[in-house]
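Our working data are protein records whose layout never changes between entries. An example says more than a description, so a record of this kind follows.
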Amino acid sequence: MLDTKWKASSGPFTSAGAADHLGELQAWDLNTGKRVWQHNFKTILFAPLLVTGGDLVFAGGTPDREFRAFDARTGEQLWSFPAPAGVIGVPTSFEVDGEQYIAVTAGWGLDAQGIQNGIDKIQGTKTVVPKGGTVLVFKVR
């Protein structure tokens, strides 16, 4: 029988820890179990990541539509690009004629928009992210 003192709930939740940021990108040392670095985002971070053999971390997934590259060892943001829509696709890396490329789809959609709508409700804000549907390809130099 269901204990009625517990109520089911859904949607985004915030806590005191979200006072200065909502999203985090973290790197952990698997040998020591310690966090090496953390990059905080004032917004949600709803994105798959790509880590390359050249120690780059690629991430999108923020309502500001930025697709970012970080140094995998230090967490320093090295680059960003303003995509035409929110970037929540899985980045991929491929090689053509000895040159490395990163491709990702931009197209904010159901899950990310639903989470953002919940956060907007809590914060009393209205975030508009273009939906789009674009494949972006970048050459790594």
About this structure: The first helix runs from residue 110 to 123. The chain has one domain: 22-139. The chain has a mean pLDDT of 85. The CA atoms of residues 60 and 128 lie 16 Å apart.
